[in-house]
């Protein structure tokens, strides 16, 4: 299935200058190609009074009863009656013979569902990117009515794109498509009941079903077994989005894949790594392969080192229980940073088809030099009090065992044993409770041989060589550091940036990664999802290291909450003649 470069959010509202996807019907904003948007009839009884404008101009349905609604119960009843009449319209609307898509969020009562999945689905709906006939189902053990689910979802919805236009209406229309079924994750009966409910909405059409497993990993297989045996589509496709963690090491990951494949074929499994859905990560290939100035430089000949930096300025608050079983290497490095590295370093794929791209990524991962303990630094944040504010230590978290050695920070030097990258250090750094929140890629170029301006550049030549920075978040930007003559009669040089600052260049807000990935899963586009052999290769790289760290009980270096992290991370970089690009405030 060949495809050309494309953007999943090339919706009708996209700017005309953006490139477009021309892959199968799925590409582009689905609605705009295969499901022409149709104005949704709005029942007269819909009122916009339970919609508020938030301080940033976004609009959200309020969870607080507005003045003339005395209680939350009344608000729920009102939403229920509104959405009931919308349901009638939905049913009326689907008499035409067209496919339906049902998206079931398994674990709908959870944090990720509330925070990311439902808001992303709404954003897609808001942008007319969802198919005409879609239904969203929440499935979890918690007892909830449809109306209660809608109230829960409405609390996190915002109209982030076009801040005022029809937002309230769109929300109510969207909520009218959301339903709930309560059941156990290992209950065939529960999923059979879900199946019956889905059929009511599918009204005999070709039914495509997407299950999003937003549940803890120990219940993935039960849920997949029940969904596939009791609730998969009889006449359309059935796909399952699986959230990380995909195991803890090579063995458990292989077991997970093996178990999933008892019920699903590889093409039905969409392993999500939400970093691949981030705008600047997706742009990496565009930047490199469609600009003549970059691709020829993309090798050991011109690149001195590459850095992948992830930092958060908050700790594991609330997720300590999960985190302690994984640690930062499994949580961030083995997946998010390694995926970016693979995209960054791969050879030119034959085409932009998912298989061609993933083939190239696997080759990079399989060419990596085994990771040595010596090339890794681990750290853990400790608490302190500053200016009257107390910052907790990792081990202060009640869900974290006392004396835990789980790293909340890690830095590593990796190498790719191939002709393009031989000897080039690929440095990774990931940490929680550091001084800032950021994710970026830094490409440091070699020094100019025989530089005529050497004497004008100051003693630190590393700091005066070109550096390309791809700031994935926050405040997306791509900038290239160059040496430049300061205007004037003297010959004085400084470091300046050629700067593509997204907020200044593009007026359209950047979609959340989950929007892109959900749209791709609905469209059957696998390019941004992890194939099982990629996953195996990623675990093969990190598993021996993780085992060694755990067997040797390597003590993490303690670092202050809010600091730059362990000093040893600098020593590691110096060993390879590298300076972390983010550690020099003046030259960031
Ligand atoms: P939650 O812990 O909030 O769990 C989701 C739902 O699963 C809960 O609402 C609960 O629903 C059910 N559940 C929780 N624990 C159990 C259990 N032990 N046995 C059976 N059911 C249980 O998870 P998140 O929403 O935070 O995450 C969902 C998935 O996404 C996980 O795999 C997580 O690792 C992954 N993930 C989460 C991120 C986040 O930011 N939250 C980020 C990246 C990945 P009920 O009781 O109603 O059945
Ligand atoms: C998740 C990790 O995969 O990514 C979290 O489990 C981390 O620990 C999160 O906080 C970061 O994602 P983002 O998109 O906020 O950078």
From TrEMBL:
<dbReference type="GO" id="GO:0004345">
    <property type="term" value="F:glucose-6-phosphate dehydrogenase activity"/>
</dbReference>
<dbReference type="Pfam" id="PF00479">
    <property type="entry name" value="G6PD_N"/>
</dbReference>
<feature type="domain" description="Glucose-6-phosphate dehydrogenase C-terminal">
    <location>
        <begin position="286"/>
        <end position="580"/>
    </location>
</feature>
<dbReference type="GO" id="GO:0009051">
    <property type="term" value="P:pentose-phosphate shunt, oxidative branch"/>
</dbReference>
<dbReference type="InterPro" id="IPR001282">
    <property type="entry name" value="G6P_DH"/>
</dbReference>
<comment type="pathway">
    <text>Carbohydrate degradation; pentose phosphate pathway; D-ribulose 5-phosphate from D-glucose 6-phosphate (oxidative stage): step 1/3.</text>
</comment>
<keyword id="KW-0521">NADP</keyword>
<feature type="domain" description="Glucose-6-phosphate dehydrogenase NAD-binding">
    <location>
        <begin position="105"/>
        <end position="283"/>
    </location>
</feature>
<dbReference type="GO" id="GO:0050661">
    <property type="term" value="F:NADP binding"/>
</dbReference>
<dbReference type="Pfam" id="PF02781">
    <property type="entry name" value="G6PD_C"/>
</dbReference>
<keyword id="KW-0313">Glucose metabolism</keyword>
<dbReference type="GO" id="GO:0009570">
    <property type="term" value="C:chloroplast stroma"/>
</dbReference>
<comment type="function">
    <text>Catalyzes the rate-limiting step of the oxidative pentose-phosphate pathway, which represents a route for the dissimilation of carbohydrates besides glycolysis.</text>
</comment>
<dbReference type="GO" id="GO:0006006">
    <property type="term" value="P:glucose metabolic process"/>
</dbReference>
<dbReference type="InterPro" id="IPR019796">
    <property type="entry name" value="G6P_DH_AS"/>
</dbReference>
<dbReference type="InterPro" id="IPR036291">
    <property type="entry name" value="NAD(P)-bd_dom_sf"/>
</dbReference>
<dbReference type="InterPro" id="IPR022675">
    <property type="entry name" value="G6P_DH_C"/>
</dbReference>
<keyword id="KW-0560">Oxidoreductase</keyword>
<feature type="region of interest" description="Disordered">
    <location>
        <begin position="1"/>
        <end position="22"/>
    </location>
</feature>
<protein>
    <recommendedName>
        <fullName>Glucose-6-phosphate 1-dehydrogenase</fullName>
        <ecNumber>1.1.1.49</ecNumber>
    </recommendedName>
</protein>
<dbReference type="InterPro" id="IPR022674">
    <property type="entry name" value="G6P_DH_NAD-bd"/>
</dbReference>
<comment type="similarity">
    <text>Belongs to the glucose-6-phosphate dehydrogenase family.</text>
</comment>
<keyword id="KW-0119">Carbohydrate metabolism</keyword>
């Amino acid at each position: 299935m060949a495809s050309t470069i494309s953007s999943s959010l090339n919706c009708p509202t996209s700017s005309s200058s953006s490139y477009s996807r021309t892959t199968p019907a799925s590409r582009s904003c689905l609605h705009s190609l295969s499901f022409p948007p149709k104005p949704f009839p709005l029942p007269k009884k819909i009122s916009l009074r339970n919609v508020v404008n938030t301080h940033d101009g976004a609009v959200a349905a309020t969870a607080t009863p507005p003045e003339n609604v005395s209680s939350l119960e009344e608000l729920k009843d009102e939403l229920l009656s509104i959405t009931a009449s919308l349901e009638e319209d939905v049913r009326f609307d689907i008499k035409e013979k067209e496919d339906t898509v049902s998206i079931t969020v398994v674990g709908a009562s959870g944090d990720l569902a509330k925070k990311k999945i439902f808001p992303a689905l709404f954003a897609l709906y808001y942008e007319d990117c969802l198919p005409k006939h879609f239904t969203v189902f929440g499935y979890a053990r918690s007892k909830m009515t449809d109306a209660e689910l809608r109230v829960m979802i409405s609390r996190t919805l915002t109209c982030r794109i076009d801040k005022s236009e029809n937002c309230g209406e769109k929300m109510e229309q969207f909520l009218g498509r959301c339903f709930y079924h309560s059941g156990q994750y290992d209950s065939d009966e529960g999923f059979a009941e879900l199946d019956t409910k889905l059929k009511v909405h599918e009204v005999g059409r070709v039914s495509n079903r997407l299950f999003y497993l937003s549940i803890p990993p120990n219940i993935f297989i039960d849920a997949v077994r029940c969904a596939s045996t009791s609730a998969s589509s009889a006449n359309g496709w059935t796909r399952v989005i699986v959230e990380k963690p995909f195991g803890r090491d090579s063995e458990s990951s292989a077991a997970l894949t093996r178990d999933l494949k008892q019920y699903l074929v590889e093409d039905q499994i969409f392993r999500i790594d939400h970093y691949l859905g981030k705008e600047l990560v997706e742009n990496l290939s565009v930047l490199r392969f469609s600009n003549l100035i970059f691709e020829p430089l993309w090798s050991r000949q011109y690149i001195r080192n590459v850095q992948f930096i992830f930092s958060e300025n908050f700790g594991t608050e609330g997720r300590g229980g999960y985190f302690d079983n994984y640690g930062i290497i499994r949580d961030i490095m083995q997946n998010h940073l390694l995926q970016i590295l693979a995209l960054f370093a791969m050879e030119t794929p034959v085409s932009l088809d998912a298989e061609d791209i993933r083939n190239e990524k696997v080759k990079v991962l399989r060419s990596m030099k085994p990771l040595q303990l010596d090339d890794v630094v681990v750290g853990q944040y400790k608490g302190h009090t500053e200016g009257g504010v107390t910052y907790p230590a990792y081990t202060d978290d009640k869900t974290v065992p006392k004396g835990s050695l789980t790293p909340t920070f890690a830095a590593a030097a990796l190498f790719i044993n191939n002709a393009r990258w031989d000897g080039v250090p690929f440095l990774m750094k990931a940490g929680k409770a550091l001084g800032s929140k950021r994710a970026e890629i830094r490409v440091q170029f070699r020094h100019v041989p025989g530089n005529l301006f050497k004497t004008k550049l100051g003693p630190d030549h590393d700091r005066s060589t070109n550096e390309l920075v791809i700031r994935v978040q926050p405040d997306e930007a791509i900038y290239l550091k160059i040496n430049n003559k300061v205007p004037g009669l003297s010959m004085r040089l400084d470091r300046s940036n050629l700067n593509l600052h997204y907020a200044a260049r593009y007026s359209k807000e950047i979609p959340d990664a989950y929007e892109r990935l959900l749209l791709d899963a609905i469209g059957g586009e696998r390019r941004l999802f992890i194939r099982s052999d990629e996953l195996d290769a990623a675990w093969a790289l990190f598993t021996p290291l993780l085992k060694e760290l755990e067997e040797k009980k390597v003590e993490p270096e303690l670092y202050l909450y809010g600091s730059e992290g362990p000093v040893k991370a600098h020593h590691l970089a110096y060993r390879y003649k590298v300076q972390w690009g983010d550690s020099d405030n003046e030259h960031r």
